[in-house]
Specification:
Distance between the termini of chain A: 12 Å
CATH superfamily of chain B: MetI-like
Order of helices and strands of chain B: HHHHHHHHHHHH
Order of helices and strands of chain A: HHHHHHHHHHHHHH
Radius of gyration of chain B: 22 Å
Number of helices of chain A: 14
Radius of gyration of chain A: 24 Å
Oligomer: heterodimer
Largest interface: A-B, 63 and 55 residues
Shape of chain B: elongated
CATH architecture of chain B: Orthogonal Bundle
Largest sheet of chain B: none
Structural class of chain B: mainly alpha
CATH topology of chain B: MetI-like fold
Distance between the termini of chain B: 34 Å
Largest sheet of chain A: none
CATH class of chain B: Mainly Alpha
């Protein structure tokens, strides 16, 4: 555990270095891009010096890390606003989308996985296997487009894209669902929900499939273990064995999966947000990459990497709480 | 040869693995026989503006696209690109990842730590994000897509081989071979590698599916091979402005991606059951224990 904690910063630093190199070898000259087409070569050079891009790469990197420690992610070359502000203003949209997808896939996926394992090889189990196999094989951008085609374009049940028409509900969190519920704004709540439905479903599908699969495998494995055999031999009621002992043990591996799941959701958010014009971090990242806005790309990578590493660290800690064996060790 | 026959006969008995095998054979056949199977083989490069956006029918099995080209024929030629990307990217990842995993797993010391931390760095960000960044930096082209996917996928093999090698080291036969004076190279190449081959093969099959999905996402974002290459992801992106009317334009390439990826996933599952009896026995046919949910 301590070992993993100690590696957290070096790993993050390594990630920074990799992204830094990738971002700085961009063939398109970002300075020329900022200066505009009418700028003279002299003006471009002046701007380059002003931005500090004429210095050696290593110096720029040390300088960047130094400012990063102070919480300064630099300025976007495109929006000319601080990256930290850009990310912060788009963070709630991504959090809302990812959380809804995560909650949905956990609440639906884990029970389905348990049921599928308990009634192994039943018709239900086979039906669920079709779902899990499709969930891992479908291209999420295509699923999103197909959902748009059916529910937004043909049936007209949901909006095509975006997060909300008109003004967002008043509130503190920036999560429209929470804000609308807190202020009792029923109309905004409905609108936010209808905008969320398709992107959240698109994002949740692969995660749901993964969870069903792993929960099923975990439960099956535990069902064969010696301690379950022992409990059966002791004549414990089946329901107690299943819901108290098997589930708890099987959830250990599922919790690990939630860490992985977060990676799936984060990666999925990049593509899903692009399809649905969702004003979150993912769209920002894709746009920044396409505009060669290297400061913004770096900012996003730092942010995503840090969160991802942190979640995995938390998963390790959660492990020790769920499984008493780990605590003893 | 006997081993291959054994694996094939076992695979044939598993229904879903068989489906996977059939899907992949279909993909390979489509790619190899594209000029024969295509009803309009010249439509990959030829435009017919008068026939644009025709719905599926006898003349055009899956309809036509915005340039009036036959979608069915373009899909067949797209299969070639898909296979090319998958095979080279997974192959390159194997060539980098397996030796890294073997060395890091066999030796204990700062080099092992360093190698595994380097692969952790790549695993710290979702693959698609890093791949987008690399593909964009290098410019949209087929070799660059393959490069971006290889650079971001090898750590999965490194991790897997590392873990397997560490487990194997505790085995008596490895210890006794070392005690007999076998050189590390001989030990790794002749004794460790054959014993980690099964999980590598399984991971490679699932990796093909995963890589093809990511490649399609790159194509969709405009970072894949440039037009008129009939790449599936790009075709879906092109079709968006003609929805909801030209639904076939968007649907067909998505189904092609779906069937391809499903084929590799099902085959990977089947291979795991056949090649790794430990898992099969321990969990009574339960699948997906070996951490196959990448990215």
């Amino acid at each position: 555990m301590l070992r993993r904690l100690a590696w957290f910063l070096p790993t993050l630093l390594g990630l920074l270095a990799v992204t830094f190199v990738i971002a700085r070898v961009i063939p398109a000259d970002p300075v020329a891009l900022v200066a505009g087409e009418t700028a003279t070569p002299a003006q471009v050079e002046a701007l380059r010096r002003q931005l500090g891009l004429d210095r050696p790469l290593a110096v720029q990197f040390v300088d960047y890390v130094g400012r990063l420690i102070k919480g300064d992610l630099g300025t976007s070359l495109y929006t000319t606003r601080p990256i930290a502000d850009d990310l912060a203003s788009r963070l709630p949209a991504t959090i809302e989308l990812t959380l809804v997808a995560m909650v949905f896939s956990v609440v639906v996926g884990i029970p389905l996985g348990v049921v599928s394992a308990l009634w192994r090889n039943s018709a239900l189990d086979h039906a669920l296997r079709v779902v899990t196999v499709s969930g891992l094989a479908i291209a999420s951008f295509w699923l999103g487009i197909m959902l748009q085609l059916l529910f937004a374009m043909r049936l007209g049940w949901t909006p095509l894209n975006g997060r909300l028409r008109g003004f967002p509900p008043q509130g503190l969190t920036g999560l429209y669902l929470v804000d609308a519920a807190l202020t009792g704004d029923g109309a905004a709540l409905g609108a936010a929900l209808s905008h969320l439905a398709l992107p959240a479903a698109t994002l949740a599908f692969p995660a749901l499939a993964t969870l069903v699969r792993f929960t099923r495998a975990g439960v099956l494995e535990v069902m064969q273990s010696n301690f379950v055999l022992y409990e059966r031999a002791m004549g414990m009621p089946r329901s107690v064995i299943v819901w108290k002992y098997i589930l708890r043990s099987a959830l250990t591996s599922t919790v690990t999966q939630i860490g992985l799941l977060f990676g799936i959701l984060l990666a999925g958010a990049v593509v899903t947000e692009t399809v649905f014009d969702w004003p979150g971090i993912g769209t920002y990242a894709v746009n920044s990459i396409i505009r060669s806005d290297y400061n913004a790309v770096m900012g996003f990578t730092v942010w995503a990497g840090a969160i991802f590493l942190l979640v995995n660290l938390l998963v390790d800690i959660a492990h020790t709480f769920i499984d008493p064996r780990e605590r003893a060790a | 040869m006997n081993a291959a026959l054994f694996v094939l006969s076992r695979l044939a008995r598993d229904r879903s693995a068989l489906i996977g095998l059939v899907l992949i054979l279909g993909l390979v056949a489509a790619a190899l026989l594209a000029p024969v199977l295509a009803t309009h083989p010249d439509d990959v490069f030829e435009l017919h503006p008068s026939k644009r956006l025709l719905p599926p029918g006898a003349q055009h099995l899956l309809g036509t696209d915005r340039m009036g080209s036959d979608i069915y024929s373009r899909l067949l030629f797209g299969a070639r690109i898909t296979i090319l990307i998958g095979v080279i990217a997974v192959g390159a990842s194997l060539v980098i990842g397996v030796p890294v995993g073997l060395v890091a797993g066999y030796y204990h010391g700062w080099l092992s730590d360093l190698l595994m931390r380097v692969s952790d760095v790549f695993l710290a960000v979702p693959q698609v994000v890093l791949a987008i960044a690399i593909a964009q930096t290098l410019g949209p082209s087929l070799p660059n897509v393959i490069l971006a996917l290889s650079v971001t996928y090898w750590p999965w093999f490194a991790r897997l081989v590392y873990a397997e090698t560490r487990t194997l080291q505790k085995e008596v036969f490895v210890e006794s071979t070392a005690a007999l004076g076998a050189s590390p190279l001989r030990l790794i190449a002749l004794h460790v590698l054959p014993n980690v081959a099964s999980p590598i093969i399984v991971r490679a099959s699932i990796g093909m599916g995963f890589t093809i999905l990511t490649a399609a996402a790159l194509g969709f974002l405009g970072l894949g091979p440039p037009p008129p290459t009939p790449e599936w992801g790009r075709t879906i992106a092109e079709s968006r402005e003609f929805l909801p009317d030209a639904w076939w334009y968007a649907a067909a390439p998505g189904v092609a991606i779906f069937l391809t990826v499903m084929g590799f996933n099902l085959l990977g599952d089947g291979l795991r059951d056949v090649l790794d009896p430990r898992i099969r026995r321990a969990s009574g046919g339960a699948r997906g224990l070996a951490g196959d949910a990448d990215g």
